[in-house]
Amino acid sequence: MKEESPPIEQESSQLSSAVPSPTEKSRKVERSSFLSMVHIVAVGLPLLVIWFAQPGTSLFSWHPTLMTLSFGFLMFEAILMFSPQSSLILSFPRATKIKFHWILQTAAVIFALGGFAAIYINKNMHNKPHFQSWHGLFGFCTVILICLQSLQGVAVLYPKWPLARKMKPRQLKQLHAVCGSLVFLVACATLGLGFYSNWFTKNVHVYVQFCSVLSCIAFAGIVTGQVYTEYGLKRPLGT
Known about the structure:
Layout: H1 8-18, H2 22-53, H3 62-80, H4 94-125, H5 134-157, H6 169-194, H7 198-203, H8 206-232
Cofactor: heme b
InterPro entries: CYB561D1/2 (IPR045150), Cyt_b561/ferric_Rdtase_TM (IPR006593)
Domain Cytochrome b561: 31-233
C-alpha cells in the first residue's frame, strides 16, 4: 500500500518553521552588526588612552597604556575568537582559534604585568602608598586572577598536565570559560574605576569619560552573554 503523503498544510507549516522569518533575519543582522562594531570600540578605547597618556613621556604613562591594551583589547579579542557572531576568524578551524586565543591571552598577561610594574615602581619613586583606592585594589586582584586563569588555560591546552588529570577535558573547558568570563568582569570593573581616577578626569571631558565607562559595560555584557549562551544554555557545567 502507498504511504499517505502529509497534508499540504502540514508541509507548509514545517517549511515555515524551518525557514527564519524576515524579522528574525533582521534581528540577527542587527546583532551581528552591533557585535562587529565592538571591534572598533576595542581598538578605539586603547587609542584614546594612548593619546592622553603619551606612553614614554613618564613611567606612569605606561600604566594606563598597557592596562587598557591588556584588558580592553587583547583579552577581549581573545575571548571573541570563539564568538559565533563577531569572531574575526569565524571561518577558521577551532584549532586555529585556540592558537590565536592563547597567543592573545599570553600577550594580555605580559602587558598587565608590565602595567602593574609601572605603577608600582612609580609609586615607590614618589613615596606614595599602594592600593589605597578601589581602582588599585581591583587592579591588584585582576592581575592575580589573570595569572591564575592562565595556569588553568595551560591545563586546558595540555590535558595530561598533572593539575588537569582530576577533571575531564570537557569540564576543564567549561570551567575555564566560566572562570574566564568572571575574571574579565573584574578586569572591566578595574578599567571602569580607572576612568574615574584623578589622572583621567583631569585630561578628558565628562562625555568622553561616560563613553569610556559605557564601553567597559558593553565589553562585560558581550562576553558574559557569549559564555552563557555557549555553556549556560546548551551545556551545563559538569555534564
